[in-house]
Design brief:
The chain is mainly beta. The protein has helices spanning 23-28, 145-148, 173-181, and strands at 16-17, 33-36, 42-47, 88-93, 124-128, 133-135, 157-159, 166-168, 197-201, 206-208, 228-234, 240-249, 313-314, 325-332, 336-343, 349-358, 361-368, 380-387, 392-399. It has three helices and 19 strands. The chain has an eight-stranded mixed sheet. A hairpin with a 6-residue loop joins strand 7 and strand 8 (166-168). Mean pLDDT is 86; it is low at 299-305. Bound molecules: zinc ion (2 copies).
Length: 401
């Protein structure tokens, strides 16, 4: 039988998790390849981003395709958006290192993109237990996640626009079906009270539901603003899976700004937003970890390493608003001629930050608005534009005085 004629399921997908990877990956993952890097410092988790269940985001004629069914008023199917297969790898540190002096409070966890240095970038920043992408829990501006959720399928997933990456921002029964398949739970229902785990982020943060790994209720008195805390994670048989591991509990299935657990923060249905651990190989000042086309090699754990991003991207500047300096990150999947320019509201070019040939990689540029040897820059709204031969992206930023 042709592979394409066969439905992609938890049973038919390929799973290849080598015996030298930590217990966590062997026990809970399906439809992925995982192996330890040569030094033993990283788990390289390879996955295709395909969803092992039916979805109306599979193209017509695909064995996994089902017809769209509205889930209520306001729901829609993103036109022309389909689940596509990609090759991803995310290199997850075996012993992640906490960022020093990091406070995860209500200011940092605000549901908005570009307001903190340590947010996960937009894009694929982790893997669910079934090999589906996990995104930053926020929506790409100017969208908001509350609206975006109306385009989710039955599994709370959707592609990032036409030919975009299929992903979750939040809880999904998809990973719970893996736990059911492995005989760890009986009902793959979000909020069922059994073990609820969704996946792992690129920096090593584990995303849980509203139970601990042994099925007990978590102690919410020590949660930070994204329902995260640190403790040993022990499974239902008493086996230690992680020691002192930061993880978040996605504990609510309705969007609300209430604080029903009384921990002083509003509930966050979409977590984590802030990366607790230092990012492997990508610098220490901000967070750039994400799925890539090739793994982080052990001898390349340096700033500006040569690993190639999987997506061409321009990120929201941070901080934003700013005064007087801000950082603009972008990822180049291939080398070539690059222009990064700043325009004012009238469309006048006021600065050229980058002009010339660059190699592929993760790039970062700092703009100091007081570098006004050319022309003073006043407070207000500006646009920054990244252009290559083939594509361009533009984003807004706000300079305060
Ligand atoms: Zn999305
Ligand atoms: Zn916990």
């Amino acid at each position: 039988m042709l592979l394409s004629a066969q439905a992609y399921t938890l049973e038919s997908c390929e799973t290849n998790i080598s015996g030298n990877t930590p217990e966590f990956f062997q026990k809970y993952f399906q439809c992925v390849d995982a192996s330890l890097s040569e030094s033993g410092n990283y788990i390289n988790l390879y996955y295709t981003g395909l969803a092992p269940y039916e979805s109306w985001y599979y193209p017509d004629g695909d064995p996994n395709h089902i017809d769209y069914v509205s889930q209520g008023e306001g729901y829609f199917q993103i036109p022309g958006a389909y689940i596509t297969e990609y090759d991803y790898v995310v290199s997850i540190p075996v012993d992640p290192e906490a960022r020093p002096n990091l406070t995860i409070d209500g200011d940092a966890v605000d549901g908005e993109v570009g307001t903190s240095n340590f947010e996960y970038p937009m894009g694929s920043v982790g893997s669910a237990l079934n090999g589906v992408n996990m995104f930053n829990p926020c929506a790409s501006p100017p969208d908001i996640i509350e609206d975006e959720s109306y385009s989710f399928d039955y599994y709370s997933g959707h592609p990032a626009g036409p030919s975009g990456i299929y992903h979750y921002h939040t809880t999904s029964k998809g990973p719970l079906e893996v736990l059911e398949y492995k005989g760890l739970i009986e009902t793959p229902t979000v909020g069922s009270g059994e073990i609820e785990m969704y996946g792992i982020m690129c920096d090593g943060v584990v995303v849980m539901g509203c139970t601990e790994l042994d099925g007990t209720a978590p102690n919410s008195s020590d949660w930070d603003a994204q329902n995260g805390h640190i403790h040993n994670m022990v499974d239902e048989e008493g086996i230690s899976i992680f020691e002192d591991r930061y993880h978040t509990h996605v504990c609510y299935d309705e969007i609300t700004e209430d604080d029903t657990d009384g921990n002083g923060y509003q509930e966050h249905e979409f977590t984590p937003e802030i990366s607790f651990y230092r990012t492997p190989g990508m610098g220490q000042n901000h967070n750039r970890c994400r799925a890539m086309s090739s793994p982080i090699e052990d001898d390349m754990v340096v700033l500006g390493s040569e690993i190639t991003p999987t997506e061409f991207a321009l990120y929201q500047n941070y901080p934003n608003p700013f005064n007087p300096t801000t950082t603009i990150d972008y990822d180049l999947t291939r080398g070539g001629s690059i222009d990064l320019t700043i325009f004012d509201l009238m469309g006048r070019r006021i600065r050229t930050l980058v002009h010339g040939n660059q190699k592929p990689g993760f790039k970062s540029v700092i703009w100091d608005a007081t570098d006004d040897f050319a022309r003073p820059v006043s407070a207000g709204l500006y646009f920054y534009k990244l252009e290559t031969l083939h594509r361009s992206f533009t984003k807004k930023m706000l300079l305060l005085k």
